[in-house]
Write a structure and sequence with these properties.
alpha+beta, Jelly Rolls, eight-stranded antiparallel β-sheet, 29% strand
């Protein structure tokens, strides 16, 4: 009986982890050593530049999507791939990381990315990456979660870590994009999005939430009824979406496009406003994950490892069994 109970407990815990993973649409870890599609341009290693897309004219895979959906990232331009060029809009890999392992999965973490110049831009490009699973550029999830680790070198102004390109979707201001996951001028962290009905929703922390030179883990969650913003696993703000009057709080997707963006494109290291690339991020980004459901805090990347929780649960059960025998 004890073995049966232990087996059921372990299976239940593993099933919970598996269920959470099944909702992941994109997961960019930047630890892509050995990926032939990336390393054909040179080794994935700290200090090396990520392959670029030559201003979104030539497809080069720069970051692998570990969700299994094929939503790989390209970077905008490094000027001269692997030739030590200007690097004005590209990224370099860095050994500066938030932690050596990812708490939720126990996976080793060795690399992050850092802007290589003053105009960083990484983005999805589904026309070229050809996702085989959920296409992140066409989804309009009723519930979703954005997670990212970041460390700023420079703050002040608007600094977008993760965004989704769009225009003419928000009724309050047609220049707003679909998503901003960012730091604001007074060092507040913010999670903002436009919904399918055209309503604008935002959560903004108190000033001074973050500073330069320190790693943070931020999570934004919308379950369709409530919007939540977490920093380092602490709930900072919540918003009741039902009082907005919106008839559909799913994430918006428009149909506009510009010379260097299209509706639905997801970006790292920049945002979009009035059809222009803005809000550049200066610093490090790591472990970015987007899910098409509302994760609870026990399912966030930055939580105790499932194996640890399983061992603790099994230990407690065995202790209870011993007490019953004594």
């Amino acid at each position: 009986m004890k073995r049966l109970v232990l087996s059921l407990l372990v299976c239940s815990l593993l099933s919970a982890v598996s269920t959470a993973s099944a909702s992941v649409v994109a997961y960019w870890r930047f630890d892509d050593v050995g990926d032939a599609d990336i390393e054909q341009w040179g080794p994935v290693a700290a200090g090396n530049p990520l392959p670029d897309s030559d201003g979104q004219t030539v497809w080069r895979k720069a970051v692998h999507d570990h969700s299994g959906n094929g939503n790989h990232l390209a970077t905008w331009e490094y000027d001269d791939v692997w030739g030590g060029g200007l690097g004005w809009a590209g990224f370099d890999w860095s050994a500066d990381i938030p932690a050596a392992t990812v708490p939720l999965t126990g996976a080793a973490n060795a690399l992050s990315i850092k802007n290589a110049g003053g105009w960083p831009a990484a983005m999805t490009w589904s026309e070229q990456s050809l996702p085989t699973g959920v296409n992140i550029e066409t989804m309009t999830p009723a519930a979703f979660t954005i997670e990212a680790s970041f460390k700023a070198d420079t703050l002040g102004g608007y600094r977008t870590i993760v965004g989704r390109d769009d225009r003419y979707v928000a009724s309050i201001n047609g220049d707003l994009a679909s998503v901003y996951f960012q730091v604001m001028p007074e060092n507040q962290v913010a999670f903002k999005f436009t919904d399918v009905a055209g309503f604008w929703h935002e959560l903004v922390s108190d000033p001074g939430a973050v500073t330069t030179g320190q790693w943070y883990n931020m999570v934004g969650v919308s379950d369709g009824s409530t919007m939540s913003l977490y920093l380092d696993n602490t709930l900072l703000k919540q918003l009741d979406l039902t009082v907005s009057g919106s008839t559909n709080t799913a994430l918006a997707l428009g149909s506009a496009s510009g010379g260097d963006w299209e509706s639905g494109t997801w970006s790292l290291g920049r945002g979009l406003y009035a059809g222009g690339h803005v809000d550049r991020w200066f610093g490090y980004i790591d472990e970015v994950r987007i899910s098409d459901n509302a994760l609870n805090p026990s399912e966030f990347l930055q939580v105790p490892e499932p194996a640890t929780m399983t061992i603790l649960a099994i230990g407690s059960l065995m202790a209870l069994s011993r007490r019953r025998k004594s």
